[in-house]
Amino acid sequence: MAKAIVTGAAGFIGSTLAEKLLEQGHEVVGIDAFLPNYCIHQKQDNWDRLRARDGFTGLLGDLVRLDLGQVAAGADVIFHQAALAGVRESWGGNFPAYLHNNVLATQVLLGLAVRHQIKKFVYASSSSVYGKQPTLPLHEGMLPRPYSPYGVTKLAGEHLVRAYHENFGLATVSLRYFTVYGPRQRRDMAVYNFIDAIAHGREVRVYGDGNQTRDFTYVDDVVQANIAAWQALSNAGCGSRPPATANVNGEVLNVGSGTSVTIRELIEAIGRVVGRAPRIATAPAAPGDVSATLANVERTRTMLGWQPVTPLQEGLLAQYRWYQETQR
Ligand code: NAD
């Protein structure tokens, strides 16, 4: 069993990943600054669940400022999930915070990995690096054209990962997640807000006309992709090179469902899960929101032997059940 560092471990994806690694018997060091970008109680719940488990060590603080020398010793991998996420808030005066948490923190962590010989680094990137592209589905060969400051910082992170890979031989994979949903989803995200509005009989607020399409990816599928990327890097490093994982070191890979729905279709689907007809109120489109995302996941399937397995309806039901439990 190995020692893994998970940054952003109080967050939505980081806490789900950390829990899965602990279930598998690994030792996990979780780090989080508890940024107040959404409900702190949610982060505290996630954190408390991890702290209750054997094998977990939690460190609270900013990645840029913490002295991580001691916890880094003997770690096999860093899963870098920490970031200030969200497109709409990344404009204007908020940008320095995005630079700090998404770019500077990533560079500091990469330096730590090299100094302490943590040989594997899995980076949580985002479909937001693609921006507006002339064709769909989005594939890794396209020139990234981020459409928001947030996307710019996530792409900067990818470039830093590549620079450390090429200069210092760090074994890396960057995973571009497409809109992730499921239990513990951030409360600033669409699915959470749509469930909350429909459950309370409120109008669902949609930015734009609701015909924009999104590829929604279930959180457990994203966790599996992270673990598959780590395994693939481990296989490549130990000399046994199964064809499926031979060239993954240094790669950037999409992690999406490979399907998409319009926001209106999503809301209808949530209405069926909640058992109440939704009422939609539209608001002007928000700057930074693209009109369509859809992942081509062929490369990820081939290189990691991974595939998304959770259908939207099933994932929405799981998120709704979690929502009901946490409302009590
Ligand atoms: P989240 O906000 O729930 O979790 C991120 C956590 O990182 C937060 O708890 C925050 O406090 C922590 N953090 C941020 N900066 C930090 C710092 N400097 N030091 C220590 N901790 C810090 O977000 P999430 O939705 O779980 O996203 C996880 C990762 O996945 C992020 O890198 C995000 O950019 C990426 N991503 C998410 C989605 C999605 O749909 N949720 C889509 C694409 C990419």
How is this structure best described in words?
Mean pLDDT is 96; it is low at 238-245. The two termini are 37 Å apart. The protein has 328 residues and is an alpha/beta fold. The strands form four sheets. It has a seven-stranded parallel sheet, sandwiched between helices. It has a two-stranded parallel ribbon with strand order 7-10. Helix 4 runs parallel beside helix 5 and helix 6 (190-199) crosses helix 8 (263-274). The protein is built from ten helices and 13 strands. Strand 4 (77-80), helix 4 (95-115) and strand 5 (120-126) form a beta-alpha-beta unit. It has a domain at 3-178 and 217-256 and 296-308: Rossmann fold (3-Layer(aba) Sandwich), CATH 3.40.50.720. It binds nicotinamide-adenine-dinucleotide.
> What would you call the structural class?
alpha/beta
**Mean pLDDT value:** 96
* CATH structural class of the domain at 3-178 and 217-256 and 296-308: Alpha Beta
Number of helices: 10
Strand order of the largest sheet: 3-2-1-4-5-6-11
Q: Which stretches are low in confidence, meaning pLDDT under 50 for 5 or more residues running? A: 238-245
SSE sequence, one letter per element: EHEHEHEHEHEEHEEEHEEHEHH
Looking at the structure, what is the overall shape? globular
Share of helix, binned: 40-55%
Present as ligands are:
nicotinamide-adenine-dinucleotide
What CATH calls the topology of the domain at 3-178 and 217-256 and 296-308 is Rossmann fold
Number of β-strand runs: 13
Distance between the termini: 37 Å
